[in-house]
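Deliverable D5.2: sample structural annotation.
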Amino acid sequence: MSEEKPEPGISPSADWREPAHYNPLLNGDRHYWAGEWLRRNPAFLADLREARCSPPDESGHILCDQDCRLARWGVRCCRIDGEAVFFWLPECNPLVLQVEAKPHVDPGSTFDCRQCPLFRAVVRGDDGQHLLFSDGTRHLQLAVIEGDALTGPALLSCTLCGLKDFETKPLPLQRLCRLARSGRLLKSLYPPERRARRWTLMLRAFDGAVFGASQRDIAAVLFGDRAVREDWEAGFLRTRIQRLLSGARTMVRGGYRRLLDPEEKGRPGR
């Protein structure tokens, strides 16, 4: 049976049997990981196909429908070169930095988003501009709730309100400052995810199951034929695969939200 994934360019295209295809995930931040889980949800993909977003206009803006059906997944989303690009809603991801932008001329205090080499995309909706900066695995997202950050150098301001903001916002503020000064998302401000290797196993197991592989076949690919021959009948390895698949399904159905915000209980998709 041929192994073809639906929705090329939206669903993952890596061969689940090849660990090297998943290695970039090990350096991914929470923004990246949450997107990897969400893009495997069939109901989300159905909504994405029906989403009414315009192609980029002359300014590079992508206009998002005010009643975007993707909001229930915690995102605004667009396609760039066939790939789903995620803009997390601030209420879903506390690391999204909400700012106001005003024109200003002081080069020591302003940030010109248009000149940043990592500026990826902007979506404009009824709630303002959503700007995404990314080097592929690390991300920074700004939600411009007042003003226009793309008309030239802008003076950005951010209001912190409450203990949760005091705890979460210093990190994206540091990331923004270093991005503005160096044009890079510094690795030191994106600590590696301690569970990334387990998440990668979960992802590969899930992709294998989508392709129709049996639990035994998945175990053989992930842990080797010898381990399966010696341990499968004892049940330990079978249980391990079942736990990987159970954890992956939980992530796909809504658990990805807790990667972004540990206080979020998650909302399983339909």
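Annotation notes: The mean pLDDT is 85. Residues 175 and 188 are 10 Å apart (CA to CA).
The annotation will be released with the project's public dataset once the embargo ends.
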